[in-house]
Amino acid sequence: MPKAKPKPRAARIPLAKSPTGIQGLDELTGGGLPKGRVSLVCGKAGSGKSLLAMEFLVQGAVRYGEPGVCMNFEETEEKLTANVASLGFDLRDLVKRKKLFLDYVFIERSQITEAGEYNLDGLFVRLAHAVKTIKAKRVVLDSVQALFAGVADTAILRSELQRLFRWLDDNNLTAIVTGEAGVDTLTRYGLEEYIADCVIALDHRVTEQISTRRLRIVKYRGTSHGTDEYPFLIDEDGISVVPITSLALTHKALKERVSTGVPALDEMMEGKGFFRGSSVLVTGTAGTGKSSLAANFTRAACARGELCLYFTFEESPSQILRNMRSVGLNLEPWVKKGLLHFNAMRPTSTGLEGHLAVIHRLISQLKPKVVVIDPITNLVSATGSYDVKSMLVRLVDFLKVQQIASMFTNLTFAGDPQERTAAAVSSLMDTWIVLRDSKPNGRPRRELYVLKSRGMEHSREVRELIVSKRGLDLGAVLSDHTVATHVAG
Amino acid sequence: MSGSSGQGVNLAHLGRNPSNGMKKTSAKKSPAKTSRSDFFILRLYIAGHTPNSIAAIANLKKICEDKLQGKYRIEVVDLLVKPQLAKGDQIIAIPTLVRRLPPPVKKIIGNLSKTESVIVGLDLQHALE
């Protein structure tokens, strides 16, 4: 029987973490999974448990110099290797380089007769052998519940599983055990009862034909963590979780100012424009010039040599470039220079969380200084109203922490100026610029005013917004009291 | 994990034959005298000489002597010595007895104290008729 010298528990450093390397998850957990402990990842079939566990091993092997063992109870080594190849993981290579050890454990109940007392030392021996062979620091057991189908005596099995988890702990292995979700319990066989340190639940829902994946940290001993569900995405780069980065609002407010791209608008804001790294909401009815304003902002940033990331949901990048040329804005040189990146997404191609995950990932990869999302209305309509606000809070927070200036446009409808989404997100925004149509004396015109802009003495005037071939400009000051009526409405 | 050294049961053989970590207990009679189909090759997997392992070896020998005299060979595999052998027969529980011959492969887990279950599990009744 394999024996391990039990270590005095008090001697352990209480909060050592083992990074998963999974984008977002490490931020969420304050550094990763509890080092040298067992974590449970549970969820229904197809919720991404195995993938998460596998990425934990691959990242450990590739990025953190921690070889890992995967004991798989459901799939052969060949199938597993093929499954994760689509995520860019080359398991065969890792196995060859002794960074990874795969062991497929197959249990055929019909072959087995039970005749007297036994324990699961065979499993222990195999695991210990694998760990020793590659000096593993990480272990995945995916998923141990298969043992319940193979071993009749569940009392033995339960005590052996407890012994197994203790063995992993005692050998200072950071482990993920996966478990299938039960009807009313986190896992079918109540594995969560044996895992004290960290439990993560995954969920995969389809609402209005759009599938959304979510992750929730059910418990994490000794670490403060959000109890919210966080959207996550599985694509060709593996898993990424949309994290919450600034629960404590720790981001520094920058004093530096940047141009709005429209000199007259800068004038309205103490002659200096926005604060660097602040978030700007631009709302307005259709055709009032929201995208033009965003494009001006973008161009100004590019001209300062700053990288811009422009997310568009309604038009293709070429459409935007064409439209902007018609208002005197040639953005193409910046695209060619690599300073302006467009990312066009179909609003219904995935849920809000999917979009947010893509946004997060691109931002992390490109590290832009300016991000434009045009318009957020589409993000919101993709999933209905379901906790849209908390997700946008996370996005805005994320941008602020990275000190990225952001501009969000939002389509409003005539007669509904304080439209729901605008009301939901406006409190997060540092600056809110309102655009609108009006037809005094039958002559249509566009109007602009700064509804709020934190930390500065901004103008409260309503100005005419002039969109022409020569670009955007502000015209005459219109009457002051319209602002008041508008806000009241 | 430390290999506990066993007491009593033929551990010396393991040292002498490190290539496969097996100890073979052949029946006295030559296998040539019986037809191939009713000769039993039984492999017993243990992990160190625990009470269950020692019991399983003793129980197995007794059953074989009673039922299969001259028609069996027992191989004992200590997985603490040769852990890599656990995968081939997909060993999880200890002790596990594997009937390698005659086919089909059958597995019995436990210390083999339930003689009836062992006889049924190895399909001995059928084989002896």
Description:
- The complex is a heterodimer of chains A (489) and B (129).
- Chain A is α/β, with parallel strands linked by helices.
- Helices cover 32% and strands 27% of the residues of chain A.
- Chain A contains 16 helices and 23 strands.
- Chain A is elongated, with a radius of gyration of 27 Å.
- The C terminus of chain A is likely disordered.
- Chain B has one domain: Glutaredoxin (3-Layer(aba) Sandwich).
- The longest helix of chain B has 17 residues.
- Chain B is globular and about 35 Å long.
- Chain B starts with 10 loop residues before the first helix and ends with a helix.
- The N terminus of chain B is likely disordered.
- The interface between A and B is medium-sized, with 31 and 39 residues.
Oligomer: heterodimer
Look at the helices and sheets of chain A and give the structural class.
alpha/beta
Helix-strand category of chain B: alpha+beta
The number of E-state strands of chain A comes to: 23
> How far do the termini of chain A sit from each other?
76 Å
**CATH domain class of chain B:** Alpha Beta
The count of strands of chain B amounts to 5
What attributes does this structure have?
heterodimer; A: alpha/beta; Rossmann fold; elongated; B: 129 residues; alpha+beta; Glutaredoxin; five-stranded mixed β-sheet; 5 strands
Concise description?
With 489 residues, chain A is an alpha/beta fold.
Show the helix and strand layout:
The complex is a heterodimer of chains A (489) and B (129).
Chain A: E1 17-18, H1 25-28, E2 33-34, E3 38-43, H2 49-63, E4 68-72, H3 77-85, H4 91-96, E5 100-104, E6 112-114, H5 121-134, E7 138-142, H6 146-150, H7 154-170, E8 174-180, E9 198-207, E10 210-220, E11 229-235, E12 238-241, E13 257-258, H8 263-268, E14 274-275, E15 279-284, H9 290-303, E16 308-312, H10 317-326, H11 332-337, E17 340-344, H12 352-366, E18 370-374, H13 376-383, H14 388-401, E19 405-411, H15 420-426, E20 431-438, E21 445-453, E22 462-468, E23 471-478, H16 481-488
Parallel strand pairs in A: 3-8, 3-9, 4-5, 4-7, 7-8, 15-19, 15-20, 16-17, 16-18, 18-19
Antiparallel strand pairs in A: 1-2, 9-10, 10-11, 11-12, 13-14, 20-21, 21-22, 22-23
Helix pairs in contact in A: 12-14
Chain B: H1 11-16, E1 22-26, E2 40-46, H2 51-67, E3 72-78, E4 96-101, E5 106-109, H3 115-121, H4 124-128
